[in-house]
């Protein structure tokens, strides 16, 4: 298929662009295969807007006479309005945008066409490999091994080729366990807590069914992670009721009789369309123009978004508590083990592990616990809050995770190396991106699409120092402690940076932020200057001392030797003098 | 009255003090006339104890007592067993809920002691006589009594205006408080109106509060006036002098706005009780706008409900949000900010003068005029300028602090005239500081300190209801001023906003409901540890401090000096 076929009118002049908090600008609108480009021709204030078609969530058109208006609502929640003269142009442009923004085939997406303009210092596709992770682990414990059982994705289609499992369990046993778990997601290591050697594992639900089927290998596998005489916790992210109902469909949960060393705790986290509807309602409330405080608060409440944030954070805190406070190992799962399970395991790691609060550590966490762990990004992020089309598998699971991270970041402003912008950037790229990182639903699909060969990784771009500096938290000071967030409803706030981003003037907040960054940068420069001066001072002092010593020796020698060698010593001294002056110049 | 009479038990040993977020401490509890002290003695009895609690009893809003261990209770024998054995094993818990919203718990061994302590605190905290309050007894060594009382004379404020226009004069018509008991002795009025006319206009306004100048906008010469409602009554009484007073404010052909902080309905009803509004026919050049703001008891109840919701640790997210909504506090914040913006807009954008009043002109009126000035006038956004604004627009303007701040959100006492208008003002200023993080020279800490001091203080600044009462009580002669303490160099530093840079522009806040936030620093201050946020602020402050040019230079100079020294010596030796 050719993109050109879909573009009925590639260009329109005298288009007026309206955005909240900006003056309307007139300019030219162009459509390309992947972008909507608006450029104002004004000399004094040339401006360009590039919008990825895949970022467009919905489009509305309106006509007043022959003037058409298109309202474009984006997946990053921005809303812009374009006034296009000429009814036909307007209709053509609208239908082109509609067609281009709803392309179904992954290989037609922009990442396959994007050619970066920057030099690649470090290929993001080669960062955060499981081997590196395992190397770190094997330096502290030898109870685990790297298994290549899933090399061809033959055992579990949604797992990466290599996984970390207990050393005492062989691949044969793993195959049997896989048959006992939903989607073959057998229990694997998610996190090792160095402080006390406790672990967090994740899996999907066991397929006990109505007959209470059991699997000895499964029992053996998870018991292998327990210390003698110790108990572990299974955190089921469904309510007991839902878990029981799952048995009718072949699923189920670990029964006490077969897993006597494990205590099961049910923590209900919502999933799928309930979350998606919550997002839709929340965004609607945020865009409400009625200026009524009661209405705003009741809509905010009715959206239930903050309730979901609270539930997820609470479950993550529970998992972290079991590990750190109770000294017990934990297994987390819900139904498929690809959504709420990952929210809990990844948040618990942020709470427990200071490394996850650095930029690289967080990237590694996203790669490990979301991308490689098989969170179906393509399905979940196909549409955002404005889409009118029928929902299939969309759910803001990842956005909720980012929101929870933001809540913790807000409560511990000095403990994170990254800032809010970093989280917002990840949200944007999960929904629409020029990079291939979030394409596909799991590693299996990514390798079939040959993403590492054909597209650029988001990490290759982010991890360059120019970009990194935008995402650094100036207040960061490594905090090696576990950080326990407050989950009281009063402590949780709406994430304005995402939800009110386009409908509040952020000029002053941005300025404040910029100023802070400037201050910190300046501070660093001065610090560097002071250090350089100190070094220089120390150097000069040593040279000075050396000369002092030299002079003393010289005097001693002069008095003991005859005058013949004095001239020789003078040359030595002169040499030392030149040395000093060159160093001074340097 | 002697304080000693109210103190039934002055000291109790081994009292356990607990407070959310802090470890419990055991120590000796003492009650003095004005304070509750708890000192622990970590190293045994011989060593001097450390004071763990130093609470102004005036700060106590509610005392709750619970007696435990009733299991020890045995019915008294008929031949009369000694009372002491019966109570020996009992203990009691006193919960002190403070006006600054802090909650403390004291576990006191001995039921009788517990009851005595509770009733002593109750009696001492409800002493209502101003002259018995702590400021009259407080004598810190670092301050002088007269310091800080005359920092912001109205003459000085008038001089600024007089340098730009001659249309205003300083009148001492109220020098002995006979014209208006709630006004200060000096007020700024139109130069064209003489004192006689003022006296007549005063009789036409509730409580004698005739229109006076509140703010002169130097940019375009428009002014903001404030007053109380006119006493038109059911017969639509008029007053030539009042009309003339307002008339002289406007130039030929100019129009002005009257912002009435009541609904049109309420303003109309006020006529039945002798009040009313300025009728169009008698004030043809003034357009009336009604912007109802909550006041009095509903506002106090809103405050109480909000604090209740904040303290409820058992609620889930839905209930929290619906309680936040139903308490309506944020709606009040929004309404106050919107009205202040309207007043500011009339002056700055429409270039029209404004008169603000509600009924008495001592509550919502001041809320609007003070906020509008923070929005319009950069000098009100400095630490000193803000103090001057509070002095002029709240304290001297006769906001009845003593009545409004007698009780806070926990009190079980019957509400009388309490209403958190000043808190609402501080909250609105906080919203401004959040939206314009650079433009206010002071930080949240100042707003919190002002809130604390308005409800219970060592200083006399917020005592009494108006200048007349302050005169009678000799507040300025016999108490210390809060400003004197705040403005000491060491103290002042704590209140500054490290990010401040002068912003000469008008700051227009967003008043969309989505932009208004709950002031967590105040309402969650004692509930949630702010350790990490405080650390972040300390870090910002440290960074800003490190960047100040003088420090930088001197460090650089020192280094370069020590650098040049050894260099010079090497040169010489060669």
Automatic annotation (TrEMBL), chain A:
The keyword NAD does not apply. Transmembrane segments: none annotated. One of its GO terms (molecular function) is protein phosphatase binding. Keywords: Acetylation, Cell membrane, Cell projection, Coiled coil, Cytoplasm, Endoplasmic reticulum, Membrane. The keyword Cell membrane applies. This is Myotubularin-related protein 9. GO terms for biological process: negative regulation of autophagy; phosphatidylinositol dephosphorylation. SUPFAM superfamilies: (Phosphotyrosine protein) phosphatases II (SSF52799), PH domain-like (SSF50729). GO terms for cellular component: cytosol; endoplasmic reticulum; perinuclear region of cytoplasm; ruffle membrane. Its main location: membrane. Belongs to the protein-tyrosine phosphatase family. Non-receptor class myotubularin subfamily. It is a peripheral membrane protein. It holds the Pfam family PH-GRAM_MTMR6-like. It is found in: Cell projection, Ruffle membrane; Cytoplasm, Perinuclear region; Endoplasmic reticulum. It comes from the Eukaryota. It comes from Accipiter nisus (Eurasian sparrowhawk). Residues 124-499 form the Myotubularin phosphatase domain. CDD domains: PH-GRAM_MTMR9, PTP-MTMR9.
UniProtKB/TrEMBL annotation, chain B:
It comes from the Eukaryota. It comes from Accipiter nisus. SUPFAM superfamilies: (Phosphotyrosine protein) phosphatases II, PH domain-like. Belongs to the protein-tyrosine phosphatase family. Non-receptor class myotubularin subfamily. One of its GO terms (molecular function) is protein phosphatase binding. Residues 549-574 are annotated as: Disordered. Residues 148-523 form the Myotubularin phosphatase domain. Pfam families: Myotub-related (PF06602). This is Myotubularin phosphatase domain-containing protein. PROSITE patterns: PPASE_MYOTUBULARIN. One of its GO terms (biological process) is phosphatidylinositol dephosphorylation. GO terms for cellular component: cytoplasm.
